[in-house]
Amino acid sequence: MKAFYISKHGGPEVCVYATDYPDPVAKAGEVVLRVRASTLNYHDIFTRRGMPGITLDLPVVPGLDVAGEVADIGKGVEGWSIGDRVVVDPINRVSRGTVGETIDGGLAEYCVVPAHQLVRVPDNVDFDTAAVMPTAYATALRMMFTNGRVSAGEKVGILGASGGVGVCCVQLARLAGAEVVAFASSQDKLDRLKALGADHVINYQEKDFLGEIHALYGKPSRRGPKSANGLDVIVNYTGGDTWVKSLQTLRVGGRLLTCGATAGFDPKEDIRYIWVFELQVLGSNAYTREDIEKCLQLASEGKLKALIDETYPLENAAQAFARVEERRVLGKVVVHP
Question: Which residues of the chain have pLDDT under 70?
Answer without folding.
Answer: none
